[in-house]
Amino acid sequence: MDKMTIQTIKDQLIADRARVEQELAQFSHRNTNPGDPEFSVEIKDVGTEEGDNAAEAAQYSDNLSMEEELEKSLKDIDGALKMIEDGTYGTCKYCKLPIDERRLAARPTSSSCIQCKKTLTQEM
Ligand SMILES: [Zn+2]
Fold first, then answer.
1. What is the pLDDT of residue 17?
2. Domain boundaries, the chain
3. CA of 99 to the centre of ligand 1 (A)
4. How far apart (Å, rounded) are the C-alpha atoms in residues 111 and 119?
5. Which of 5, 30, 31, 108 could form a disulfide with 36 if both were Cys (CB 3.0 to 4.6 A apart)?
6. How far is the CA of 12 from the centre of ligand 1 (A)?
7. What are phi and psi of 39, to 5 degrees?
8. How far, in Å, is the centroid of ligand 1 from the Cα of 88?
9. How far apart are CA 89 and CA 104, in angstroms?
């Protein structure tokens, strides 16, 4: 892969990362205590009336799954950025062959080629 393409992807990843972090910050905060999960979801106090607690619980579980999703994206982005740093970006982690650039353009966090991905999905 040429440097220009990698630079473009890197810029995109950094922009994505900032967006994901911003979304995460809306309903969770990064834990600073070592040993705690990296993020925790805040429970919004909707009210004390009957039914409010159910609303809070529903919102909490929504946030929790969204938080998991965002945290996963963050990890994927960090992984891709690390591969760029290491110079291994664009190489399939399973078969070590170059990943199709069109695939990377569509999904810059891809770490496996289409063929390996297919094999993997079929196995599951
Ligand atoms: Zn592969």
1. 97
2. 3-87, 90-124
3. 7
4. 14
5. 31
6. 23
7. -125, 150
8. 13
9. 10
Q: Are 90 and 101 in contact (CB under 8 A)?
A: yes
If you measure from the C-alpha of residue 94 to the centroid of ligand 1, how many angstroms do you get, rounded to a whole number? Answer: 5
Rounded to the nearest angstrom, the distance between the alpha carbon of 29 and the centre of ligand 1 is 36
pLDDT digits (tens, 9 = 90+) for 67-95: 999 999 999 999 999 999 999 999 999 99
Q: What is the pLDDT of residue 51?
A: 73
Q: Are 59 and 44 contacting, i.e. CB atoms less than 8 angstroms apart?
A: yes
C-alpha 5, offset from chain centre: 21
50, pLDDT greater than 80: no
The region of weakest confidence among 41-50, 81-90, 98-107 is 41-50
